[in-house]
Write a structure and sequence with these properties.
428 residues, 16 helices, mainly alpha
């Protein structure tokens, strides 16, 4: 259900109100440029390595290695950004990333052994700048407690999906129309330029918390945002969403090539991502009355159900329709998961929490690409589409079993005590 609840300024929550937030455009514009390479990395590796080795399995494994490295190192990057500031982490990170991509590209073009590609893929993925979580953390710092936070989460999902519309199409066009390595070269250049521009916007970055302001354990010491049970459940759900991205990416690449239309791969993936973007726009335009926990428990089963018919597609128009449907179902689950972080995690640890979720998506994407590639090599392109179904189904089981962890501590205490309950207080 939707509501017309207003924000504290008296203005109805919406994109216009969000974009009028002071200082927002100063980090949104460079952030948009800097996050484009994120959607180009895995498809760029996939297309280049497939070109040099002739194997989807090998290409998927190298791409997955980069994805796993990104997923494992992203939270550490987020933790450092919370503690020392985003610019302090981003500037050296983009320089290392550009160098790592250059090395991986050179090795692939020189027909280096697979083990060398796998080794080079580790720093390439590990150094991927986490622009999306950094932008989300800036929104959270500016909108703490505001109804506009849900709108911001939807806006970021739309931006991410617009990135996934542009990125794969651009990378595919460069790899197929210019040179097999052109996609990765463009990814490295955009990362370097966009990342440095974003890093210069220091006024809007969340205040570094040093050793304080993060999640504290029972002994008062700083611990990971992953210690929050709800964050772990959300990470699993994001892992399932990642298998959709990875499985769709490698399967669509193989499917279009199998039908003799490899140039349509970017278009097909773009239709899938466009569905996500459209649903994201709608989600952000609505002021929801139902809690984000409940919305997630509705949206995720619908996503798992939408992935069911993918493997049965036998023609591009049919696959495009199914892909659009899956895209429409991803955005509500994705947006709601990021919205819950603002409720579950203290402000001083949100960049890290966002990177855990983004890293989980990347890890799921890597797993989806690897398993999908192996299935495609062993059987056919259609079997790769079983990966999104399996990944979301498994994540749904975990989500339903541990759903109570998604309720913020204050809300669960209120529910247990009753609305009218008051804590006893001492009187001097």
């Amino acid at each position: 259900m939707a509501s017309t609840v207003n924000d504290p300024t008296g203005e109805r929550p919406g994109y216009g109100s969000l974009l009028r937030t002071r200082g927002a455009l100063s980090f949104l514009l460079p952030g948009f440029l800097a996050r484009q390479p994120f959607a180009m990395l895995t498809i760029g590796i996939l297309l280049l390595v497939n070109h040099t080795t002739g194997s989807y399995g090998t290409a998927g494994t190298v791409s997955a290695t980069a994805g796993v490295a990104m997923a494992l190192f992203a939270p550490q990057s987020g933790k450092l950004a919370d503690r020392f500031g985003q610019a302090a982490v981003l500037i050296p990170g983009v320089i290392v990333h550009a160098a790592a991509i250059s090395l991986l590209t050179a090795l692939a073009l020189s027909d280096a052994p697979v083990w060398a590609l796998l080794v080079a893929a580790v720093p390439a993925g590990a150094s991927t700048p986490q622009i999306g979580p950094m932008v989300r953390a800036r929104w959270a710092a500016k909108l703490d407690g505001s109804p506009l936070m849900t709108t911001a989460a939807a806006f970021e999902s739309v931006t991410d999906e617009f990135t996934f519309v542009i990125g794969p199409v651009l990378a595919t066009a460069l790899c197929t129309g210019v040179h097999p390595a052109a996609g990765l070269i463009a990814e490295a250049a955009l990362t370097l330029i966009g990342g440095l521009l974003f890093a210069t916007q220091r006024r809007t970055q969340p205040q570094p918390n040093g050793a304080a302001g993060a999640v504290a354990g029972a002994d008062g010491k700083r611990v990971s945002a992953l210690s929050v049970p709800g964050v772990r459940v959300l990470a699993v759900s994001m892992l399932g969403i990642g298998t959709v991205f990875g499985g769709m990416q490698v399967s669509m690449t193989a499917f279009t090539k199998e039908l003799g239309e490899p140039g349509l791969n970017g278009l097909m993936y773009g239709v899938f991502a466009a569905g996500n973007m459209i649903a994201g726009i709608v989600c952000g335009a609505v002021a929801w009355k139902t809690s984000p926990q409940r919305r997630l428990l509705i949206a995720y089963p619908l996503l798992a159900l939408a992935t069911t018919p993918l493997w049965a597609a036998h023609a591009l128009p049919l696959l495009g329709g199914f892909g659009l449907l899956v895209g429409l179902c991803i955005a509500p689950a994705l947006i709601t998961g990021y919205t819950l972080v603002e409720k579950l995690v203290p402000a001083g640890a949100r960049t890290e929490a966002f990177t855990w979720l983004t890293g989980a998506v990347g890890l799921g994407q890597a797993a989806g690409a690897t398993v999908g590639g192996r299935l495609i090599d062993a059987h056919s392109a259609s079997t790769g589409f079983l990966v999104p179904l399996g990944g979301t189904a498994l994540a749904l089981v975990v989500l339903l079993a541990l759903r109570k962890a998604l309720t913020p501590q204050g809300e669960s205490l209120l529910a247990a005590r009753g609305v009218g309950h008051r804590e006893p207080v001492s009187v001097d």
